Inverse folding.
């Protein structure tokens, strides 16, 4: 019974860290808040793998995971960005941009739960990746213009509800014999996170950003593809209508 509940323990840990992140940013600790979201990403990555390794997958666990993700990777990152960067904006604009992100995240999760995806790919930017980018991007609020942060927030929101395919690494599982190591990994991650919150968050920002930009590149490539195909079709139609002398 305890073994079967282990994946849910990781999921609840994910939710707990999301709540701690919200509390931390409102206590003027944005670096700690961001790293709590990053550690929550680790737990989110482990719960599904542990469930598959133990054959403990369930509808309850799936729903709990989605609800936790909305808080940890939707609400928490949005609040982090709002507190550190958006408080000086027009109030209505700041509230709307802040709300759009978790709303798109919730839509992304709802679609994931009911729509069959493509094997090996996610449809739309996964909310943990989007939340990870947003909360770590917020740490650069002194170096970046507020407009850039607003546009980045909206772009991440769009990518979550887009139909862009992102690589899915769920096939990288955990051997059942190695499950006992996962709590040790989590403890080490938490210790490092508390000891080096700002530095570690900014380092993790780079791979997360590259993953998000992968989808943006796919969108641009797709637009060019459709534009080229439309142009080719127009040329073929023009040639077919040209009279033969």
């Amino acid at each position: 019974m305890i073994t079967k509940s282990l994946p849910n323990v990781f999921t609840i840990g994910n939710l707990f860290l999301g709540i701690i992140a919200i509390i931390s940013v409102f206590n003027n600790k944005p670096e700690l808040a961001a790293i709590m979201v990053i550690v929550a990403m680790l737990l989110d990555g482990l719960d599904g793998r542990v469930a598959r390794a133990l054959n403990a997958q369930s509808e309850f666990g799936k729903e709990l995971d989605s609800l936790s993700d909305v808080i940890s990777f939707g609400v928490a990152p949005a609040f982090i960005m709002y507190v550190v960067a958006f408080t000086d904006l027009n109030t209505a604009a700041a509230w709307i941009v802040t709300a759009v992100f978790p709303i798109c995240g919730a839509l992304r999760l709802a679609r994931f739960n009911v729509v069959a995806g493509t094997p090996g790919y996610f449809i739309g930017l996964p909310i943990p990746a989007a939340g990870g980018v947003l909360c770590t991007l917020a740490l650069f609020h002194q170096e970046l213009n507020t407009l850039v942060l607003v546009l980045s927030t909206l772009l991440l929101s769009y990518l979550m509800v887009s139909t862009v395919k992102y690589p899915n690494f769920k096939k990288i599982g955990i051997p059942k014999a190695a499950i006992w190591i996962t709590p040790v990994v989590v403890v080490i991650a938490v210790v490092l996170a508390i000891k080096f919150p700002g530095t570690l968050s900014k380092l993790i920002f780079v791979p997360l950003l590259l993953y998000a930009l992968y989808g943006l590149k796919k969108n641009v490539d797709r637009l060019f593809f459709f534009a080229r195909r439309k142009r080719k079709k127009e040329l073929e139609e023009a040639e077919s209508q040209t009279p033969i002398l």
In short: The longest helix spans residues 197-241. The mean pLDDT is 79. The CA atoms of residues 26 and 198 lie 16 Å apart. The first strand starts at residue 121 and ends at 123.
